[in-house]
Design a protein that fits this description.
With 139 residues, the chain is an alpha+beta fold. It is 42% helix and 22% strand. A hairpin with a 2-residue loop joins β2 and β3.
């Protein structure tokens, strides 16, 4: 069964529920609409680059570099696979970006990301040639 067929069936059932019990429909509608609506795709602006972090051939995180006022700011995000986290590129980019611009506190950079962060910072220096400084907090 295709996604469109499933969405049509859900909408038909929701229509029947709305006729029978509008209160239940109201409660269910917000939950179901969030599931049915296509997820927004994060588009990176021209002043940002990112790189996917892999660990044992599995995608586990993302590193973001962006230029703001002549300063290169680096941020990162990594899921914890041991706790059952699943990697999501869009969420990772959002978190790494907020850490880069200091809207969210950044914990200590994981050891497995140190080498890749060094390589990525060199890539940022090549990409943003007119930048004056680079900023990354490694607590």
């Amino acid at each position: 069964m295709e996604r469109n067929d499933i969405v049509k069936a859900i909408k038909m059932v929701m229509g029947l529920i709305e006729k029978e019990n509008p209160e239940v429909h109201k409660v269910l509608a917000s939950e179901i609409n969030s599931l049915i609506e296509p997820k927004s795709v994060v588009k990176t602006p021209p002043n940002m680059i990112f790189e996917i972090v892999k660990e044992r051939r599995h995608k586990v995180g993302v590193i973001v570099g962006l230029k703001q006022d002549g300063v290169i700011k680096l941020g990162w995000a990594k899921c914890n696979r041991k706790l059952g986290d699943v990697f999501n590129k869009d969420e990772g980019i959002r978190l790494a970006e907020t850490r880069a611009i200091k809207m969210a506190d950044s914990p200590v950079l994981p050891l497995c990301m140190n080498r890749q962060m060094n390589d990525f910072s060199a890539r940022c220096l090549r990409y943003f040639r007119d930048a004056k400084t680079m900023e990354l907090v490694k607590k």
